[in-house]
Amino acid sequence: MYIKIYFNDKPVFLCDEINAELKEILHHPDAVLVDEISSNAINALLHEIKKDEFHAGVLFHEDLQALKKSFFKHFTLIEAAGGIVQNARKELLFIYRLDKWDLPKGKMEAGESAEECAVREVEEETGVKNIHLKNKLGETYHTYNAYGKHYLKITHWFFMTCPNGQILVPQTEEDIVDIKWINTVNIGELMENTYPSIRDVVSIYSAIGK
């Protein structure tokens, strides 16, 4: 089992076993393996990530929860939620924000569940109504720096459905300039201009076979 965390487009894997996928990643000459959970070891990896040639990192420890705790304490954690929304024509809802195609999502408010946040954010960012939340798809993790702090955002993703005939209203104050329903047959081109974590969510959706 592993957790994948993105530093921009570069992944770091926290794992309790080195499976075939991770072995393949570690074959790359610029991949880094760390097999201890000390602060010094983790800080050394975080320093390596800043290098242009860095390809991927793998942190291994037999206790994944202990590894996760040691790694996460280097960041300020933020929780968010969002969704893949499918209409009655089996099209998926995407927003265009900051020159990338994205899925609607946002930060959880105090006292709010991930499910409540996901539905609220979809409604606020796109104007879609009558959302039916179906099931959870999983989580994605990515980091960013702001105001001199290092943040790690955990986003909870849900599969949702809604009826046709929606009036789409982009939330411009959140830098959303376009919203589109995309047929999955044509999704390949869109996936070339999105974030790797969004590609992961779409892959999970596709694998489940909605």
Write the layout of secondary structure elements.
Layout: E1 2-7, E2 10-15, H1 20-26, E3 31-34, H2 39-49, E4 56-60, H3 64-72, E5 76-86, E6 92-97, E7 100-102, E8 105-107, H4 114-126, E9 132-146, E10 149-161, E11 176-182, H5 187-191, H6 196-208
Parallel strand pairs: 1-9, 2-4, 3-4, 5-10
Antiparallel strand pairs: 1-2, 5-8, 6-7, 6-11, 9-10
Key words describing this protein structure:
28% helix, 210 residues, 38% strand, alpha/beta, three-stranded antiparallel β-sheet, 6 helices, 11 strands, globular
Characterization of the model:
The protein is an alpha/beta fold. The chain folds into two domains: 2-72, no CATH class; 76-208, Nucleoside Triphosphate Pyrophosphohydrolase. It has helices at residues 20-26, 39-49, 64-72, 114-126, 187-191, 196-208; strands at residues 2-7, 10-15, 31-34, 56-60, 76-86, 92-97, 100-102, 105-107, 132-146, 149-161, 176-182. The chain has an eight-stranded mixed beta sheet, sandwiched between helices. Strands 7-6-11 form a three-stranded antiparallel beta sheet. The longest helix is centred in the middle third of the chain and has 13 residues, at 114-126. The protein is globular and about 55 Å long. 25% of the residues are buried.
Reported CATH architecture of the largest domain: Alpha-Beta Complex
Count of individual beta strands: 11
CATH class designation of the largest domain: Alpha Beta
SS-based class: alpha/beta
Q: How many domains, as an integer?
A: 2
Spatial order of the strands forming the largest sheet: 3-4-2-1-9-10-5-8
SSE order, one letter for each helix or strand: EEHEHEHEEEEHEEEHH
Q: What is the subunit organization of this protein?
A: single chain
Indicate the radius of gyration in whole angstroms.
Answer: 18 Å
